[in-house]
Amino acid sequence: MEFQTEKQLVLEYYAALDKAPLGGSESVLQRYLSPSLIWRGFHPFNEISDAGHLASTVWEPIKTSLTGLQRRMDIFFAGGNSLTSEEDRSAWVVSMGHLMGLFDQPLLGIRPTRRIAMLPYCEFLRVEDGRITEVAFYFDLPSLMGQAGVHPFPPQTGAQLLQPGPQGHGGLLFDQQPAVEGEATLAAINAMISDLGQWQGGLPLEDELARTWHSDMLWWGPTGIGATYTIERYAKQHSGPFRAAFADRSNTNHVCRTAEGHFGGFFGWPNFTARHVGGFMGMPGSETTLEFRVIDLYRREGDKLAENWIFIDLLHVLKQQGMDVLARLETL
What we know:
Structural class: alpha+beta
Distance between the termini: 50 Å
Number of strands: 15
Helix content: 25-40%
CATH topology of the largest domain: Nuclear Transport Factor 2, Chain: A
Low-confidence stretches: none
Mean pLDDT: 94
CATH architecture of the largest domain: Roll
Number of domains: 2
Shape: globular
Strand order of the largest sheet: 2-1-6-5-4-3
């Protein structure tokens, strides 16, 4: 299936939204978004179904805080949802990068720096009959906190970096890609998910990862976890500690899983649940079953995965355990 028309619609939507003056976001949203919109975003926004509410609670505050807003995309592609039936002809357009501006006004209690700031984001947009009907807009708000000198988390296991784009800078797939490449990417992602489902037994962790990842894999994790490089360091710095901190992981539950060319990914609401037995993000074990809202994007090389960009709603994870980071900002 070809999704060039849907890509163009999203690009036009982005251009109109990014250039809209203060007070003008709602008219753009009304023009491009369906009246039956389902919009999902990280804490504290959660689910929104009204363009006016979306404008007043999300886009107007972002544009007020990050003046001179620019969207700097690193990945852009489209595909069908592999999890739905063949009768579903809708497209999912995927975008990842940073919203950049001058951090001139507070945002959700984060104090402005009056310096350049970059808010990492990733977005899945479902397009049907010329309108955007469903959106997952996931963003690394703790990254913006860190840029403002606020560090709400204990020392992380990985390195804290602004997430870069893909090696080779080939992630902007404005042109249609060969179908066989997207199918190969989806196959690699599905194989990795199948192995991930066996995380409480079977092969040693590094051997398991080597089945679907290159040895020099790059894992660009969110603020609070951080980035890791190579299978060996990923196992030690994130995957191993994460698995040790949780038990009773549920099955994967994605809303969309798609790919085009050498890029693909998925999101869930939530992706999975797991019982916290202790140690994650410095929190003691509570036996609480937590839900994880996640977007994962991947770059494939050959028949294995080479890079992974991850957006996890860590503020929501902590809030489920009684820690409201946003409410505590004034004391940090």
